[in-house]
Amino acid sequence: MSLDAEGYLVNSATGLRTQGWLVGDDGVDTNLPVDDIQIVTDKTVAKATENVYLGGNLNAATPTDGTGTVTVSMGVYDSLGALQTASVKFTRQAADPLVWDWAIVDPATGLPDPAAGAGAGTITFDANGQLDATLATNPTVTTPVQIPGSAGSANGGQVALTLDFSKLTMLNSAASVAVTSQDGLPAGNVSDVYISPNDGVISLVYSNGMTEQVGQVALARFNNPNGLLKAEGTAFIAGINSGEAQIGAASTGGRGSIASGYLEASNVDMAQEFTNMILAQRGFQASSRVITTSDEILQELVNLKR
pTM for this structure? Predict the structure, then answer.
């Protein structure tokens, strides 16, 4: 399959359009009538960061006089795909050495600044250096953090995200806190159209790694497939004896699955065709001998007359 000039999914050999269902507000509804599948590929999308996961160790030997701090930088994307830089500063409390304060700070000064973002709280460890699971604030910060975004981005120009501290430890080892993973993606263009090999779900693959479901290929089932009538090329049409087409999704209602990326093997019986070829060759040779013999007989008749 391929896309034609108008974006319709077609059989690249015949130009016939593929039919199925397009994604609506509630996803794909296979109970709706099928239609030609048209895919828009000149799209550019981005995804704002919603979750940032931090892991590593906060050194248990860090001083408790207010000078013991650990600062981690992170990059987040706003809804327009612009990368914004922020920092999280951890400070060990003097009153309770098992508690660390954290806050969003200005990456340049290391101090809280509304222009650099908003968000603060505490994380508490137990005597084994693991997050205290008995506290409601552990292991995830439930209050969204606000990071300034670019002008015109969503949420009034703010990136609302959640910091996850569930993988942090406090052991007597060097500090190694870092961002382990995060969501959010920069702007990306459509790089591929992917059809799921089993259910026929059609997805757009973007250059930034994002995928978007846009439709699903429909399959037709007939009560008597042998009653189908051969049409042009490899196509078949419904006949009187085939029954009406029962249209639905792949792998449902007795319909087959979709084998994506496969080349159909030859359905010719090679042994029988070789036998037929030998028979035809022998028949041609025999016919040639008959002609030769007839020519010789005529030549003898001519000689007898002379």
Answer: 0.69
